[in-house]
């Protein structure tokens, strides 16, 4: 009978080394996992979708090779995978609409509507105090407007919604979410 040292036996029959496990960095950890939008008594919920990201281009019509979906005439595009941090355009997470799983992208714009008779212009100072500025006034609805956070960051648009909702006489505050256009049947 031949005897081998134990070290020799373990070297020959040991399993290959276990690969180092690296967890992927959460590029959008500052964004909420869920966004709830209340509009005229009905609520819609969005859930952040891992494995997807959106690029917001400065000009519409930008060709996006590799995009799985282009929104807003090509001004925004959704990609699968991890974002390239050297990307010069604005990056944001992608959310899914909980009711049907449609992909949705926050734009950084927030819609606000005051009670009838209250003009947005009369509330401009209060809106600025909440960290937003009026991006677009609506001539047909002087009590409503599109707002953008003063920082210009999408995450700040989401984070400040509760401050806008706390303004007296506000009836509705909604984050703008871009989604693929769909045909509505039965209406």
Indicate the structural class.
mainly beta
Question: Could you tell me how far the N terminus lies from the C terminus, measured between alpha carbons in angstroms?
Answer: 87 Å
Low-confidence stretches: 9-16, 18-23
> Which word captures the global form?
globular
Largest sheet geometry: 9 strands, antiparallel
Question: Topology of this protein?
Answer:
Layout: H1 6-13, E1 34-39, E2 42-56, E3 69-71, E4 76-80, E5 90-97, E6 103-114, H2 124-129, E7 132-137, E8 144-149, H3 154-159, H4 161-165, E9 170-179
Antiparallel strand pairs: 1-2, 2-4, 2-5, 3-4, 5-6, 6-8, 6-9, 7-8
Task: Tell me what you see in this structure.
It is a single chain. Residues 9-16 and 18-23 have low confidence and may be disordered. The protein is globular and about 50 Å long. Strands 1, 2, 3, 4, 5, 6, 7, 8 and 9 form a nine-stranded antiparallel β-sheet that branches. The protein has helices spanning 6-13, 124-129, 154-159, 161-165; strands spanning 34-39, 42-56, 69-71, 76-80, 90-97, 103-114, 132-137, 144-149, 170-179. The protein is mostly beta strands and 187 residues long. It has four helices and nine strands; from the N terminus they run αββββββαββααβ. 13% of the residues lie in helices and 38% in strands.
